[in-house]
Amino acid sequence: MSPEPANGPGTGIPRHLAVIMDGNGRWAERRRRPRMIGHRAGARAVNVCIDFCLERGIQALTLFAFSSENWGRPEDEVGALMKLFMNALEREVEELDRRGVRVRFIGERTRFSEAIRQRMDEAEAVTAGNDRLHLSIAASYGGRWDIAQAARALAEDVAAGRLSPDAIDEHALHARTCLAELPPPDLFIRTGGDLRISNFLLWQLAYTELWFTEALWPELDTATLQSALDDYARRQRRFGLTGAQVAAPRTETSA
Ligand code: IPE
Ligand code: IPE
Ligand code: MG
């Protein structure tokens, strides 16, 4: 992404939006349909969200599609989700590429089948040159896994003599976490009404503004996303400073 952001803190538009897409199962259950119908309806909402980001000039979108813990769901649900994932990869990549979306996957990729891994690699390769929207799909992803794999990468560098233990600091660990090349999420949205992080981006969300809605993921519409943005624009992000410092940074810090 460009170093000089058009969006970001102070502009009212987040540069990076992170979303927990929750509530597919309940959406289907309320209609007395199998949970899988909810997941299918959820795939449509993904497009609503991507379109919204493209229209509003949000430069990065990270979607939580499947968590490390979701592998523990009933076998038939996991199997059906994998099929849906595979179909979506086959169906959507061309259009995403056409619209200038760069697609990447974060998570423990080795847990997926060879066929899915191949599709993921292809989607990343085909869209690698795009810069309009950086779309990261968190699949087989857990925030704890992310931090642990970054710690392992640090240990490997130390063991290989490439890094001194004294050089290990927040910056060094951050550089080895997923999404390190993007600005951290400015705004987090979770649908489905539950007020928790569920092992999403634990490291990256340190100073992210959190926003929750009762709306279930398949119900997602532009108006809901717009209310999240409106709310975000009204907030004062202080990053540990005082409100006065943030309101008049130069006067406060140079005094
Ligand atoms: C989110 O919807 C999608 C995945 C976790 C794959 P859920 O399937 O968790 O839906 P609810 O929370 O049971 O309604
Ligand atoms: C979080 O939803 C994971 C995804 C949306 C992919 P879950 O439905 O798995 O979260 P919990 O278990 O209710 O916290
Ligand atoms: Mg859920």
Automatic annotation (TrEMBL):
Residues given in the record as substrate binding sites: 23-27, 35, 39, 67-69, 71, 73, 190, 196-198
Positions annotated as active site in the UniProt record: 22, 70 (proton acceptor)
EC number of this enzyme: 2.5.1.31
Recorded name of the encoding gene: uppS
Known catalytic reactions: 8 isopentenyl diphosphate + (2E,6E)-farnesyl diphosphate = di-trans,octa-cis-undecaprenyl diphosphate + 8 diphosphate
Entry-linked Pfam families: Prenyltransf
NCBIfam families found in the cross-reference section: uppS
Protein name (database record): Ditrans,polycis-undecaprenyl-diphosphate synthase ((2E,6E)-farnesyl-diphosphate specific)
Alphabetic keyword roster: Cell shape, Cell wall biogenesis/degradation, Magnesium, Metal-binding, Peptidoglycan synthesis, Transferase
Residues that hold Mg(2+) according to the record: 22, 209
Function: Catalyzes the sequential condensation of isopentenyl diphosphate (IPP) with (2E,6E)-farnesyl diphosphate (E,E-FPP) to yield (2Z,6Z,10Z,14Z,18Z,22Z,26Z,30Z,34E,38E)-undecaprenyl diphosphate (di-trans,octa-cis-UPP). UPP is the precursor of glycosyl carrier lipid in the biosynthesis of bacterial cell wall polysaccharide components such as peptidoglycan and lipopolysaccharide.
GO CC, one annotated term: cytosol
GO biological process, one term: regulation of cell shape
Cofactor requirements of the protein: Mg(2+)
Family: Belongs to the UPP synthase family.
Free-text cofactor note: Binds 2 magnesium ions per subunit.
One of the record's GO molecular function terms: magnesium ion binding
Assembly and interaction partners: Homodimer.
